[in-house]
Amino acid sequence: MTVEAAGLEGNWKPVAAEVSSQILPITELRVARLSFDADRYSIFDHAGQVVDAGQWQLGADVIPRPLDLVGNAGPNAGRRVLAIAAFDEERLSLAYDLERERRPASWRHEPEQLLLCITYLRQS
User: Which band of pLDDT confidence, cut at 50, 70 and 90, is reported for residue 95?
Assistant: First the structure.
């Protein structure tokens, strides 16, 4: 992990979501909290149970930054999710394609793409 990636560590609560530019109510998300530590991520549901977990790796310092999530528990076990991320001290935005195994080029969905974008706020 790089020094720049250290800003991603901590707990994040979703505050907005959309799938291919259609607003998705937060209550419909499985994720209630996303947690990053030195090299692991965990997704917690509304009951506080871990529903997805694995390793993460943040790419080059470009915007948006490439983020790889390699699952070892839950529905993404054995899968590498290729995401993009943008974050500062208080806000994190993530996007990934729900169907194709390729990294999104931007925050805007392409035709025939099922792009999930979630905005999180840091929890204290």
Answer: very high
Domain ranges for the chain:
4-123
For residues 83 and 105, give the distance between their C-alpha atoms in angstroms, rounded to a whole number: 9
Q: Which pLDDT score is estimated for 58?
A: 92
Q: What is the pTM of this model?
A: 0.89
- Return mean pLDDT, the chain: 90
Q: Of the candidates 102, 99, 63, which has an alpha carbon nearest to the alpha carbon of residue 82?
A: 102
Confidence check: pLDDT of 1 > 60: no
Three-state secondary structure of the chain: CCCHHHHHCEEEEEEEEEECCEECCHHHCCCCEEEECCCEEEEECCCCCEEEEEEEEECCCCCCEEEEEEEEECCCCCCEEEEEEEECCCEEEEEEECCCCCCCCCCCCCCCCCEEEEEEEEEC
CATH 3.40.50.300 fits 4-123, yes or no: no
